[in-house]
Write a structure and sequence with these properties.
Rossmann fold; six-stranded mixed beta sheet; 2 domains; about 350 residues; 13 helices; four-stranded parallel beta sheet
Length: about 350
C-alpha cells in the first residue's frame, strides 16, 4: 500500500509539471547600454508565483524517492515564505499536512497564501530559530523536515532535465548573444546558484556566475574567507535571500564572483523596475537587477557587447505592506533617494 501511494504521488507531481509551461524570458531595452542585452527569467509565472515552485517540486520528489515521505506524513519546512507557499501547494496536491516555520515578521500576503493551500504557520521570533523549531516539530509529530537549506543543491538534477539553467540556455538560443556573459543570481537556499554554476561548467560555457548578496548575509563573507562558522546576529531584510549562517547548499567554488548589494539599492531598483515593466516585482529581484546594472555599466565602459541574464523571482503583490509601503521602507530600510538618483543617472 505504501509503495502504491508513493508511485501515485510521484505521478501526481509529474502530471502537475506537464500542465505547467516554461517561464518567460523577458528582454529589457536600456539605451544607456548599447550592445548589452539584459534578460529577466520570469519565475513569478509558476502556479505558486515564484522561483521556489521548482525547488518545492524537486524536494518532494527527493523525499518521496528516498522513502522519507509516506502517506499521511506531516511536512515541515523552515521558510521565510515563498518556499513554504510552494510546498503547501504540493502538500495539498498529495493530501499531506503542512507546517511552515517562519519568522513572525514574514509578509502577511505569504502567510495568507500558505493557509490558502491548506498549510499552517508556526512563528518564531528570530530567523536563526527556524532550524531548531522545525526539527523539534518533525520529531514531535513524526513528520518529515524538508530542510531546503541542506537539500536544495542535491534535489535538483544540475546536468539538465529542464532545470533553471537548462531552460535559460534553451530560451537564449536565437538571441543576438545566446551564451550570456553573466548570469546574476541571489542566494537563499543557494540551490539555484549551485545548479547554475554546475551546469555552466558541465556544458563548458564561458558564462560567469555572479551571486549578489544583501546586507546581514554571511554568504559573501564565507565565499571570501571559507569560514563555515560565520554567523550574523540579525537576518536579511530582503525576504527570501541572504542567510545568517552558511547553509549546506551554498557551494562557493561554482561561483565566479560575488557582490554585496545595499538593501536600499535592492528596494530602489525594485521600484525602478516596476516602472520599466509596468508591474510589481519583489525586492530580491531588485537585488538581482542592481547587480545586473553594475555589470552592464562595466561592459559598456569597456566597450564589450554581450548579454546578461537574471531572475525575476516573485511578484511584488506579496509585499504591498512592506517594500511597497513608503512608511515601512523609511522605518526599516531608510531613505531610497541616493539609490533612486543613481538609477536615474545610470539609466536615463
Amino acid at each position: 500500500m505504501t509503495k502504491a501511494w508513493v508511485n501515485n504521488a510521484i505521478s501526481e507531481i509529474n502530471a502537475d509539471y506537464q500542465r505547467s509551461a516554461d517561464t518567460h524570458l523577458i528582454r529589457l531595452t536600456l539605451p544607456a547600454f548599447p550592445g548589452v542585452q539584459i534578460y529577466l527569467k520570469d519565475e513569478s509565472t509558476h502556479p505558486t508565483g515564484s522561483l521556489k515552485h521548482r525547488l518545492a517540486r524537486s524536494l518532494f520528489l527527493y523525499g518521496l524517492c528516498n522513502g522519507w515521505i509516506k502517506e499521511g506524513t506531516t511536512i515541515i519546512e523552515a521558510s521565510s515564505g515563498s518556499t513554504a507557499v510552494s510546498e503547501a501547494y504540493f502538500a495539498r496536491l498529495l493530501g499531506l499536512p503542512f507546517i511552515a516555520v517562519m519568522p513572525a515578521c514574514t509578509a502577511k500576503r505569504k502567510i495568507e497564501q500558505i493557509t490558502f493551500y491548506g498549510g499552517r504557520c508556526h512563528f518564531v521570533d528570530q530567523a536563526c530559530e527556524i532550524y531548531a523549531a522545525s526539527e523539534k516539530l518533525a520529531h514531535e509529530l513524526n513528520g518529515h523536515y524538508m530542510d531546503q537549506f541542506t537539500y536544495a543543491e542535491r534535489a535538483t538534477d544540475w546536468r539538465g532535465n529542464n532545470n533553471i539553467a537548462d531552460s535559460i540556455y534553451r530560451q537564449m538560443t536565437h538571441e543576438p548573444h545566446p551564451i550570456p556573459d553573466y548570469i546574476v543570481m541571489s542566494a537563499g537556499t543557494s540551490g539555484s546558484s549551485a545548479t547554475l554554476g554546475r551546469y555552466i561548467r558541465y556544458q563548458g560555457h564561458k558564462t560567469k556566475l555572479v551571486v549578489v548578496d544583501p546586507e546581514n548575509s554571511v554568504f559573501i563573507d564565507y565565499w571570501q574567507q571559507r569560514d563555515c562558522g560565520l554567523t550574523s546576529p540579525v537576518g536579511s531584510r530582503i525576504e527570501g535571500i541572504g542567510r545568517p549562517r552558511c547553509e549546506p547548499s551554498f557551494i562557493p567554488d561554482v561561483i565566479d564572483d560575488m557582490m554585496r548589494v545595499p538593501d536600499g539599492a535592492s528596494v530602489a531598483t525594485m521600484l525602478w523596475l516596476e516602472k520599466l515593466l509596468g508591474r510589481k516585482v519583489g525586492a530580491s529581484t531588485g537585488t538581482n537587477m542592481w547587480g545586473v546594472l553594475q555589470l552592464a555599466e562595466k561592459m559598456h565602459r569597456e566597450g564589450q557587447h554581450g548579454s546578461i541574464v537574471t531572475l525575476l523571482c516573485d511578484s511584488g503583490e506579496r509585499y504591498l505592506e512592506t517594500y511597497y509601503n513608503p512608511r515601512w521602507v523609511e522605518e526599516n530600510i531608510g531613505s531610497l533617494h541616493p539609490w533612486l538618483d543613481k538609477l536615474d543617472t545610470v539609466c536615463q
